[in-house]
Amino acid sequence: MRVLAAMSGGVDSAVAAARAVDAGHEVVGVHLALSASPGTLRTGSRGCCSKEDAGDARRAADVLGIPFYVWDFADRFKEDVIDDFVAAYAAGETPNPCLRCNEKIKFSALADRALALGFDAVVTGHYARLEDGVLRRAVDADKDQSYVLAVLNAQQLARAMFPVGDTPKPRIREEAAERGLAVANKPDSHDICFIPSGDTQAFLGAKIGIRPGAVVDADGTKLAEHEGVHGFTIGQRKGLGLPGPAADGKPRYVTGIDPDSGTVRVGSVEDLHVWTIGAERAIWTSGVAPDGPIECVAQVRAHGGTAPAIAEAVGDGLSVRLREPLTGVARGQAVVLYRPDELGDMVIGSGTISATGGAGSAPIGSQTEAAATR
């Protein structure tokens, strides 16, 4: 096949491209320029898509003996990822920009251009497995990225390749060194790539500005003032602007955000318990929504935040009822559904969280369990 290898300048994408070459594919490397004014150097493991990264990607392509290009996706990235991120926080949501980047840039804009140029698939260094069109968790659980790939539909998965998902990360670094790739020991990128300082609140403050509001307790009593709901997320404990813990001595957490009134509600950890999740923009990796309730495992964060559940399609969205409560579940996050089997956890689908139910939502009991026949 003729495949396009998305090369970030890191070790994972370099080895993924190398494995595609080994498999006999005709491989062309491409680095995505996602910033209109990329920095010269990264700050340690923070940030990406810098001039340094582009140079590292080019050198890796030279070692592999494949053609290499840099494609400018800065405008598209700003519109579909950065602007979406800022708008979501302004609306009191907690988005994951990596999901949007995969959905809108790497496996939409990039893949569409690749197909138009006659390529059959896009290769990336994501840690996930694709087997007969089924998306599964990576072998390396600590590096698994299936959560941020669960926004891909069946058509996008059909033209994707994840060559490193069957290998633990330490072995990938060893392989890169054996191949003579200079990125073998390059630090992994952390935090949000377009906020290399790591200060998300400062970034959002500069974009959104001051929108004052109140921090209140469960009874609506005003405890403090703040400069904008974008500085808070559900489950947050630190940086609330409060003089101390609650009267009972227990720590307080953000339990609710109302962007219209600018109100941030705080409460106990028990107030964070979520038993039901409603989501919109459901994506089913098989291309077909399930016909009725399904047994699954729901995950609400890239690493951690999992619970057994029963889920079902509801219109263009989905509804999830948890067997065990989850905490820190916020609107704008993704809920990803997995089904364990003998080959490892497979991704069933995903949706963008739009509503949650707490203590008033009863956990799943024996009567509803009988309804989950799949």
Automatic annotation (TrEMBL):
Domain of life of the source: Bacteria
Top-level class of the enzyme under EC nomenclature = transferase
Q: Which UniProt keywords apply?
A: ATP-binding, Cytoplasm, Disulfide bond, Methyltransferase, Nucleotide-binding, RNA-binding, Transferase, tRNA processing, tRNA-binding
Which Gene Ontology terms describe the biological processes this protein takes part in? methylation; tRNA wobble position uridine thiolation
Sequence segments annotated as region (Interaction with tRNA): 143-145
Q: Where does ATP bind?
A: 6-13, 32, 125
Q: tRNA-specific 2-thiouridylase MnmA-like C-terminal domain: from which residue to which, for each copy?
A: 278-353
Give the positions of the site Interaction with tRNA: 126, 333
Annotated active site residues, numbered on this chain, are: 101, 193
Q: Name one cellular component (GO) term.
A: cytoplasm
Please list the GO terms describing molecular function.
ATP binding; methyltransferase activity; tRNA binding; tRNA-uridine 2-sulfurtransferase activity
Reaction catalysed by this enzyme: S-sulfanyl-L-cysteinyl-[protein] + uridine(34) in tRNA + AH2 + ATP = 2-thiouridine(34) in tRNA + L-cysteinyl-[protein] + A + AMP + diphosphate + H(+)
Q: Name one Pfam family in it.
A: tRNA_Me_trans_M
Q: Where in the cell is it found?
A: Cytoplasm
Q: Which family is this sequence assigned to?
A: Belongs to the MnmA/TRMU family.
Q: What is this protein called?
A: tRNA-specific 2-thiouridylase MnmA
| Organism per entry | Nocardia tenerifensis
